[in-house]
Amino acid sequence: MAPIKIGINGFGRIGRLVARVALQSPDVELVAVNDPFITTDYMTYMFKYDTVHGQWKHHEVKVKDSKTLLFGEKEVAVFGCRNPEEIPWAAAGAEYVVESTGVFTDKDKAAAHIKGGAKKVIISAPSKDAPMFVCGVNEKEYKSDIDIVSNASCTTNCLAPLAKVINDRFGIVEGLMTTVHAMTATQKTVDGPSSKDWRGGRAASFNIIPSSTGAAKAVGKVLPELNGKLTGMAFRVPTVDVSVVDLTVRLAKPATYDQIKAAIKEESEGNLKGILGYVDEDLVSTDFQGDNRVQHLRCQGRDCSERPLCQACVLVRQRVGIQHPRGRPHPSHAQHQVNERHEDTGESGLPQRSVQSLFF
């Protein structure tokens, strides 16, 4: 099968990392990039050098002219249009457009790419009205007549597969989630104004900042049976990559520790192979920077099954990965790392089971 041809709108943090993944993927061909705010020289510089993921060490990247980049011998067209309708995607051969500006996230705005000649649009963020798909969760519901989809958020991509396994096997009555989230580009290096959230304007590298998250609500969109059952909040912390989602749920039926880990291991070798996996190491968040393994589970602890309580801590490596537009998992997408622990809470006597997962 010939590779699908993609264009990227917005060559910021997500756009550049999507480009890195696409250029190393035999079934995806990057043909065009649009960004009205940076020149080809600056695009080349930002693509080659990355503080978190390191220097690009594959094809040589250089400028051919003001409208063309060269990745090795591969030419990629560069446009600088502010209005998506004006981007000549069809002329560049782009069938699918990755909308990664963070601006055109609803269906009407994203549809402008269709008018510009694209066949399909994949929004790299949650959308209020575009259907959302997460590999391993609901991608089979995709129909070919759907032209605009949302890939949800990195947190949702990590949380939803694990929530699906727990819910399918044991049932989730209700749950609370807390995201311990690495810094993002919207935060401030020093204290500054933030009209949306005053605390969000405080210096990112000096503070643990309480914030809001839409991940719990988004899980309800990709798993309708969990709609309204999950809620939560977020904390922004001074790290540059890899985040944690702590999910505590009340199970519909009691389960032993061994039953829970056996269910997740079974899914990792069956329905969720390539998305969910299993590992047996003690690791920390920085161990997963740049790691493109699939989700793994590490299990240890003692059995304590008298209470139907399950706590899951899901680590999320944000902004990296590409959802395959044809509705199947891309080898570099939906990748997680999991570390599961079981321990007594002490005073309450209730068992807590902790599952740590990383999304790449």
UniProtKB/TrEMBL annotation:
Residues 4-154 form the Glyceraldehyde 3-phosphate dehydrogenase NAD(P) binding domain. Its EC number is 1.2.1.-. The record marks H181 as: Activates thiol group during catalysis. Pathway: Carbohydrate degradation; glycolysis; pyruvate from D-glyceraldehyde 3-phosphate: step 1/5. NAD(+) binds at R13, I14, D35, R82, S124. One of its GO terms (cellular component) is cytosol. Residues 351-360 have a biased composition (Polar residues). NCBIfam families: GAPDH-I (TIGR01534). PANTHER family: GLYCERALDEHYDE 3-PHOSPHATE DEHYDROGENASE, GLYCERALDEHYDE-3-PHOSPHATE DEHYDROGENASE GAPC1, CYTOSOLIC-RELATED. This is Glyceraldehyde-3-phosphate dehydrogenase. The lineage of its organism: Eukaryota, Viridiplantae, Streptophyta, Embryophyta, Tracheophyta.
